[in-house]
Write a structure and sequence with these properties.
317 residues, 8 strands, 2 domains, 10 helices, Rossmann fold, alpha/beta, binds zinc ion, two-stranded parallel ribbon
Length: 317
């Protein structure tokens, strides 16, 4: 009798800390807002996510701050994009991976689906979030990573990932429908840097950037002159600015075309490498893509719903 009671007491003592531990969310640090959003979507209440790069931040140029380093050291998991997106943080992550669980989530995507990098023969274009179908592979990788870290929540992560992947499918359908409603000769996307390669390939758009795949090189005068000629020759009337890149080169294009008697305007601001303001629809991956698709299709002549796919865009087209 006494012995049985003692065993029961021991069992209670053993389960208490375990239960408390299981309820504490996994502390996760993610570099880009897009990764942080995917972790929140899949992890639900089992994760506490800190995204390092907020609205308007350029990941090609970003370097970790002291506060970032403290957060990453204390986290259960650190997720970064990889594919040379966070070019200034590569060495840091290599060091960190010796003492911390660090996963480059975009590196899981089948390399045959990746586009070549213009500037480096051995690297790929990292901007895969521009295609919801490719981004779905990253969401699946995040699901696998969270499941490994917390196997008892596997069912929750699977259900959340499935629901989010369905939202990405809806985005793909919306993109195909709106972007192909643009007249064929107008399917040209001219932006500050080459972030839209996957987007162009997925929806049949010609893509031109003043700067290359990275934002780390200055746009030459030759490149500006070349693009002004293209705008004039092909009678293109819209260019797009990006929230995470200076609009200086786009203004130079508009002025250059004007000097040749051709009027070009800004079709809108796109979220290329960073999402919109936190706690807004545009501050989520779905909202970011909805905004881009709606603004591009609308500016180039398609009929689009004023507030986008889900009726939630704050500044409708
Ligand atoms: Zn970029």
């Amino acid at each position: 009798m006494i012995r049985r009671r003692l065993l029961a007491a021991l069992a209670v003592a053993a389960t208490l800390p375990l239960a408390a531990w299981a309820e504490a969310p996994l502390k996760i640090v993610a570099t880009t807002g897009m990764i942080a959003d995917a972790v929140r979507q899949v992890g639900g209440d089992q994760v506490e996510v800190k995204g390092l790069m907020g609205p308007g931040i350029d990941p090609h140029a970003y370097r970790q701050t002291r506060t970032d380093i403290v957060a990453m050291t204390r986290a259960d998991l650190v997720l970064w994009h990889g594919l040379y997106l966070e070019a200034q943080m590569e060495d840091f992550f290599e060091d960190l991976s010796r003492k911390q669980t660090v996963v480059a989530v975009a590196e899981s995507v089948d390399k045959s689906k990746l586009r070549a990098h213009d500037d480096y023969a051995d690297k790929y274009d990292p901007h895969i979030w521009m295609s919801p179908a490719l981004w779905g592979e990253v969401v699946t990788e995040i699901q696998a990573t969270l499941t490994e870290a917390r196997p008892e929540s596997a069912d929750l992560f699977a259900a959340n990932a499935k629901a989010h992947l369905a939202e990405l499918d809806a985005l793909t359908a919306y993109a195909e429908q709106s972007l192909t409603a643009v007249p064929e000769e107008s399917r040209v996307l001219l932006t500050a840097h080459d972030a839209f390669g996957y987007f162009g390939a997925a929806y049949g758009y010609e893509v031109m950037g003043v700067q290359g795949i990275s934002t780390q090189s200055e746009a030459g005068l030759n490149r500006i002159g070349e693009l002004v000629d293209t705008l004039v020759d092909r009678q293109l009337t819209a260019v797009f600015v990006e929230s995470s890149v200076s609009d200086r080169s786009m203004r130079a294009l508009i002025e250059g075309a004007a000097a040749k008697g051709h009027e070009v305007s800004v079709g809108g601001e796109l979220f290329s490498d960073a999402m919109g303001v936190d706690s807004t629809y545009e501050g989520t991956y779905v909202g970011m893509l909805d905004h881009n698709i709606t603004v591009i299709a609308g500016a180039l002549g398609a009929n689009v719903p004023e507030r986008g796919l889900n009726g939630k865009l704050s500044a409708g087209f």
